[in-house]
Amino acid sequence: MSALRHRVFEPHHCSTTQCLLLLGNKLDLVHQNAIHVETIRKEQRHQKLHTEFNINPCRKLHVLPDKPMSRKQTEVIAANSDFIEAFHKARQEPTKKYKQPQTESQEIGWISTPLIPSNRNDMRYNFYRFSTDVTIHKEYALRSSN
User: Fold this and answer.
1) Domain ranges, residue 17
2) Residue 15 is assigned to a structural domain of this protein
3) 100 found inside a domain
4) Are 66 and 74 within 8 A, CB to CB?
5) Residue 116 C-beta-side C-alpha neighbours within 13 Å
6) d(C-alpha 18, C-alpha 31), whole Å
7) Using an 8 Å Cβ cutoff, are 19 and 6 in contact?
């Protein structure tokens, strides 16, 4: 109702987006420009300038070497560089990066250490392959058929 009143009294000075959407009329060039100006002002009001950039830890970084016959000198990167530390941290496996699993699927297998220390001499857990007279006969039959 207020949008309708607003349109009747001030048809060409309306710059509010709500008023234009409530009316449902096709927008003319003046109203389109007003909406555009309002959008730009909102963007400039809430814009934040970022000056510090980081490597995305979720993507692998593929470093490509120079061409073999190029004469350009290779860059020397300082050994204690923050870039190298961030690069190595991004390449680590999740259990070394984080203390707790970050997703539901990481919870499966997060603790991968065995519950019982392995003992290769314990016959209850290690089933080695051994031959009997039946398996020896079957192997001999398979070898002779080829």
Assistant:
1) 2-46
2) yes
3) no
4) yes
5) 6
6) 12
7) yes
- Domain assignment present for residue 24? The answer is yes
Q: What's the domain count of the chain?
A: 1
Please give the angle made by the CA atoms of 126, 132 and 133, to the nearest 5 degrees: 175
Query: Cα(60)–Cα(90) distance, rounded to whole angstroms?
Result: 8
Residue 14 confidence class, pLDDT cut points 50, 70, 90 = low
Token pair of 66, please? 């120079």
Q: pLDDT band at 25, cuts 50/70/90?
A: low
Alpha-carbon distance 55 to 65, whole Å?
A: 19
User: CB neighbours (10 Å) of residue 116?
Assistant: 7
Residue 40 in domain: yes
Alpha-helical (H) ranges within 27-113 are: 29-46, 82-91, 94-97, 104-107
- Residue 12 DSSP class: S
0.90 exceeded by pTM: no
How long is the chain? 146
Alpha carbon distance 29, 46 (integer Å): 26
Find where tokens 């398979």 sit.
142
Residue type present at position 11: P
